[in-house]
Design a protein that fits this description.
Layout: H1 3-10, H2 14-17, E1 26-28, H3 38-45, E2 53-57, E3 76-80, H4 85-92, E4 96-98, H5 106-112, E5 116-123, E6 131-133, H6 141-147, E7 148-155, E8 169-171, E9 177-180, H7 197-207, E10 215-218, H8 222-232, E11 240-246, H9 248-255, E12 271-276, H10 280-286, E13 292-294, H11 297-300, H12 303-306, E14 312-317, E15 320-322, E16 327-328, E17 331-332, E18 335-336, H13 343-352, E19 357-361, E20 365-367, E21 373-375, E22 377-378, E23 396-399, E24 402-405, H14 411-420, H15 424-436
Parallel strand pairs: 1-2, 1-5, 2-3, 3-4, 5-7, 7-9, 10-11, 10-14, 11-12, 12-13, 14-19, 15-22, 19-23
Antiparallel strand pairs: 6-8, 15-16, 17-18, 20-21, 23-24
Length: 445
């Protein structure tokens, strides 16, 4: 097959390609760094011709052009699978909504539950075999594109080519249109600044629990990144990676010689992930690097896969949690912040692993908008808050005041343990609240 000839046949302008979108269509922008740029701009220019166009995306790194106009919501409705700060702004504008999911199930959603009229994503340039790499986001893209009635690719020469499992590339033969955009720099996700003393205290408690040869998953945020930095500077060795999101902390560990993956029962020697976002350092590291491997999220996050990886260590953040052990990692009351993502997948998967441990980490307090200090450990979750991890699944909880394992504890033991790692200023009130809820037993502690 003459792939170059086929490429030229399907090559068109962004303006021509987006004519495939009709009023009432479901349009998919893919995931994170793969969101289109030139195609998004061309679609936004058609705003006044269209109504009721429903667009899906997730972990949005920049404001889409279709969401910028004052009357954008009269023409487009945004649907986010997982919210970033940009997604929250679109939702607050009144034209966006969140789509709840457990991330490992997202590919199946496309196979069984949702429709896609037009899909448009950024990809790498085509190789000599007619393939384009999904670059930094394998995620659910293969199933999403398989479902799409029309597929439009936007080539970006700056995207890294990432090796991976089936479901990480698409062939020109399966594409309807190709456009060549402006080759924008890949959007970067910062590390969140220097770690705080609280971050370091929490990270230290977790790193002490990680054995040589462990397999790691890190969530997004300052504390997991601080754990990664500490591991890079530690004496730990022969660690592996099997994670949902690949972040700069893994690159630091790899460059420090900590990641060999030689003890992994699956994908030995490979750092496995569903999508990646970080600084240019990360993008340069993963580009055509055989040490890393992209994979669809129904592989990376499947608890049945995680259970086969011994000493699997999962480290994630939380917004707050209650004395029953319910963890909220996605909303502040009714204000939506992120999503379930893969946190519950990894909480369950780590516990199923031989020697595995799941850690939920958070600072003991947060400063409110009024400047007052508030406890992250609360009697009950604020009405409207989402229980990301049910109390039956949670294992280790870590604050700067200590670490507790909730497995096997009764309601009063949980309350006592959690109050013991709450900020001292709030402990007496939490005891009184626990008493009112009949989950407190006078003890010698």
């Amino acid at each position: 097959m003459d792939y170059q000839a086929l490429y030229q046949q399907k090559l068109t302008t962004p303006e021509q390609a987006v004519k495939a979108v009709k009023s009432g269509d479901w349009v998919d922008y893919g995931w994170c760094t793969n969101h289109p740029v030139a195609l998004d701009r061309a679609l936004a220019a058609r705003k006044d011709e269209l109504t009721d166009v429903k667009v899906r995306g997730g972990v949005t790194m920049w404001m889409p052009e279709i969401a910028k106009a004052d009357d954008a919501g009269d023409h487009f409705t945004w649907h986010s699978w997982h919210c970033s700060g940009v997604d929250r702004k679109i939702i607050s504008k009144g034209m966006g909504f969140f789509s709840p999911m457990r991330y490992s199930e997202l590919p199946r959603f496309y196979r069984e539950n949702v429709s896609v009229d037009v899909a448009m994503i950024q990809v790498t340039p085509m190789d000599s075999h007619g393939n384009f790499s999904y670059a930094l986001a394998a995620s659910h893209l293969a199933d999403m594109l398989d479902r799409a009635k029309v597929i439009i690719l936007e080539v970006n020469q700056n995207l890294p080519w990432v090796y991976g499992l089936t479901g990480c590339e698409i062939n020109i033969a399966d594409v309807d249109y190709v456009v060549e955009g402006d080759n924008p720099a890949v959007a970067q996700l910062g590390g969140g600044g220097e770690p705080t003393d609280v971050d370091r205290a929490v990270a230290k408690l977790i790193v002490e629990q990680i054995p040589n040869g462990a397999c790691l998953q890190l969530g997004i945020g300052g504390m997991p990144n601080t754990v990664g930095s500490m591991i890079a500077q530690s004496d730990l060795k022969d660690l592996g990676v099997h994670t949902e999101m690949y972040v700069d902390g893994f690159v630091d560990m790899a460059l420090a010689g900590k990641l060999t993956g030689r003890n992994k029962a699956l994908d030995k020697g490979r750092q496995v992930y569903a999508f990646a976002a970080g600084t240019q350092k990360l993008y340069d590291y993963v580009n055509r690097n055989p040490a890393v491997m992209a994979a669809p999220v129904d592989y990376t996050n499947d608890v049945r896969v995680l259970a086969q990886l011994d000493n699997f260590i999962s480290i994630n953040n939380a917004i707050d949690m209650d004395l029953f052990g319910q963890v909220n990692a996605e909303s502040a009351g009714l204000k939506h912040i992120s999503g379930t993502g893969g946190q519950l997948d990894f909480v369950m998967g780590a516990y199923l692993s031989k020697g595995g441990k799941s850690f939920i980490c958070m600072s003991s307090t947060v400063t409110g908008k009024d400047g007052s200090l508030k406890s992250r450990i609360v009697p009950t979750l604020t009405p409207g808050s989402i229980a990301t991890d049910p109390r039956s699944c949670v294992q280790y909880i870590v604050t700067e005041y200590g670490m507790v394992n909730l497995k096997g504890l009764s309601t009063w033991e949980r309350a006592e343990a959690l109050i013991g790692i709450a900020h001292p200023d709030f402990r007496e009130q939490l005891i009184q609240d626990a008493e009112k809820m009949h989950i407190w037993r006078r003890s010698n502690k």
